[in-house]
Amino acid sequence: MNSVYLLAVPTNGLYHLAGEIGQAGLSYQIIQDLDYLEESEAGPGPVAVLIDLSTVSISQTRTLIDHCRELKLPVLTVVHESIINDLDPALNPDDFILCPIHPGELQARIKQAIFRLKGPVSQNVLKVGDLVIDLEKYDVLMGSKRISLTYKEFQLLVLLASNPGRVYTRDVLLNQVWGYDYLGGTRTVDVHIRRLRSKIEDPDHSFVETIWNVGYRFKGDA
User: Fold this and answer.
1) pLDDT digits over 1-20, tens only?
2) Number of structural domains found in the chain
């Protein structure tokens, strides 16, 4: 399991939980807000977010939970026994866990929250580095960030990523993705490849390689 983000204001409010989280086999990063997710492009991203209700206000917690929903990240609230009777059910996180935390319970609750939000893990998945392509759900993820592709862009990506290292000519890509009866020219392929690259690539991630005067290939070691 990858890392979790722990939200506390101030951030030193969660250091006392580090031992339990480490015993659960999880790495973690303590942050004050979810803007970090927008700013950070490196790494596979967190699998879940924990919010310490003893350090974050109710209004902040509601905002953070809504943000997690938008990012499709499971969110769990850490509830100290001293405030359990004041827990507001309207917050509606994916789950909560009592503090002090039992390491086994923490990992189990995170896995359950992920299952509730995303369903069972698909067996029909292509994965290259941080790029994950779910062929059943038509989902493309870069770390924790969902990438929105058109259907043709998705078809192109699947075709290329399914055969890393193989060089596809523009004519072959045009025929396999658009069909033999498509009246457009190979320029259509170049336009869609450019759009696809703009969505899945950045300075740290390069997947599609241009083979000049021939076509394109997907780099298996991207």
Assistant:
1) 455 666 555 444 455 566 66
2) 2
